[in-house]
Amino acid sequence: MASNVPSVPSEGLNGPNSMYIKLIAADGHEFIVKRNLAYYAKTVKDMLESGPVQVKEDEPSVVHLKKIPSNALIVVCSYFAYKHIYINANTMIPDFPIALRDSLDVFMAADFLRC
Amino acid sequence: MDVFLMVRRKKTTIFTDAKETTTVRELKKIIQGIMKVEPENQQLMNQDGTEVFDDDKPLSEYGLSAQSARAQSPSTVALVFRQENGEFEPLELTPLSSPPELPEVMKPQEPHQQDVN
Asked: Distance, in angstroms, between B101 CA and closest chain A CA?
């Protein structure tokens, strides 16, 4: 039986071409984001594309981020969409709000994720 | 116009975007693709749990507009699934980790009255 490798993103979380991927924070919170947005974090992209384990078609694409707490990861996930909109924009770019209490955790997460 | 959403249930948060005109039913189909739960077994509501969303209404009906639901501050929509007994589970959103308390010096300062003798 010939197997077709899909070149379009497949629905949901499963397989190496899934539209969405799951990022798991230190406290177990699970964040599901679109793969193309999460790839703004170079560390996530490298982990999924050239990691030691290849994701099978029926398995979800998951990245465990044991050092990043959920209050920081939620801010990072919002940042991906913000970056995607404004990266090529010529319009005025609005500020990206980060609560003072979260800022250290967010900064360390951004450093680790390279975004 | 695009609206940016966080669909939250217990420890799961789904970041997705939709249009102001997207219906609640269409959003449930997106969730079905990710969570593998039929739309009939999903219920969407505001994060307080005070208003359940009607499948046929557009997201704008529930205050989800491009002005309020931006990429850098997405709006939260709460999700519950139907249980074995046919009833929907109670709304439960697990709180996120708390960052450490700000040290005194970083807290907004109250103006002090100084006595000058």
From this structure: 7
Ordered domains of chain A (ranges, CATH): 10-113 (3.30.710.10)
Domain boundaries, chain B: 2-81
- pLDDT for B29-88, tens place per residue? 999 999 999 999 999 999 999 999 999 999 999 999 999 999 999 999 999 999 999 999
* ipTM > 0.90 (yes/no): no
Q: How far is A36 from chain B (nearest CA, A)?
A: 12
pLDDT for A15 equals 85
The CATH class given to the B2-81 domain equals alpha beta
Q: Which of A73, A85, A103, A104 to mutate to test the interface with B (most CBs of B within 10 A)?
A: A85
pLDDT range class, residue B108, cuts 50, 70, 90? low
Q: Which residue of A has its CA nearest to B35?
A: A12
Q: A103's torsion region: left (phi>0), alpha (psi -120 to 50) or beta?
A: alpha
What count of other Cβ atoms lies within 10 Å of the Cβ of residue B81? 15
Q: What is the pTM (predicted TM-score) of this model?
A: 0.87
Q: What CA–CA distance (Å, rounded) separates A87 from A79? A: 11
DSSP H stretches of helix in B1-108: 24-35
